Amino acid sequence: MPRTTGIRALIRPLRQALRRRISRWITRCCGTPHPRTGPLPAPGRILVCQSNSRLGNTLLLIPLLQGLADRYPHARIDVVIKGCVHGSLLQSLPGIGHVHELPARGAAPRAMLKLIRELRRLHYDLAVEANSLSTTNRILLAGCGASHRLGFAGPDQCLRLTHAVALPSVASHSALQLLHLLTALPGRAPASQPTLAVYPDAPTRARAETRLRRALGSIPANRPVIGFFTRATGNKQLPNAWWQQWRAALHAGGDPPLLIEIVPPGGLPVHADQAAVSTTDLMELAALLARLDVFVSADCGPMHLAAAAGIPVVGLFRATPASRFAPLGNDCISLDEPLHPVVVARETVWRYDRRRDTRRSA
């Protein structure tokens, strides 16, 4: 992301400070500075608002959505997200009704007004703020006309919420922070160990299998397949030389695994002879990832998608805290700096050996 320079760099912190001061004044007058609980009739329609457009943040909504569906099994849960491409991943979850697309930044204000009118027409019983730092989320909650509103209390919470919790420690996992919202609602406490899940249908799984076999050829029954993704954003991305050393360490053993690289559309693999696969269909990608034995990636959306697909994940963290963004799933691990390629390869081998032993004993 380019750095802001010149006059704008001087004005920006002043504008942010002014916005915080105004927000805190509004909060003291009519907002929700402190946690609040109370009775809530079983809602028939629930709206969850998440204005962040990143794939990982969309996936980290899943434990909250699962918790709401478990607590209110007869409710229809709608979601507002930015970017309709992620909608299919949430649409497969139990209890999910419609996924509304938030207008892109710079879209005409009438697009936002049209969305708010549509939300008001649906008469939601409960609206949930899933991003405590988003002005857009607060506009949606204020405008949707829901009977009850759930979010995070605090000195900057300028909305009047009917149910609110204090934001947990900033060191706690992002998905666990969202799941903590449910403690403000009547009913049993949510699970303390959230997991991710997506549910590709049979035709999607068949397309993914075809794509994988086209990239790898025939796959021996006992030969592990390891997937990896190198294209994280910004400082999270590891250099190609690191991945080359990691590949070499994996091939140094007597029975090297099959490797498949997940590349963005139009991207090139890390090495000319590396088998690679690409798809723009995220549900198909989830089905493809579910077919692998282990997935290795820096902190990014595909890392969380692999965890949701139910396979062991080795997450590599160098610019973001693993405590907040670790992959959530069985046999997933997060490794922090220093990330030595040989050590990461050893962790990868240990996980696919365990996966293979489990399959043999099944």
UniProtKB/TrEMBL annotation:
E.C. code: 2.4.-.-
Pfam families: Glyco_transf_9 (PF01075)
GO MF annotations, alphabetized: glycosyltransferase activity
Class of enzymatic activity (EC top level): transferase
CDD domains the UniProt entry points to: GT9_LPS_heptosyltransferase
Keywords, alphabetical: Glycosyltransferase, Transferase
Domain of life: Bacteria
PANTHER family noted in UniProt: ADP-HEPTOSE--LPS HEPTOSYLTRANSFERASE 2, TETRAACYLDISACCHARIDE 4'-KINASE-RELATED
Record protein name field: Glycosyltransferase family 9 protein
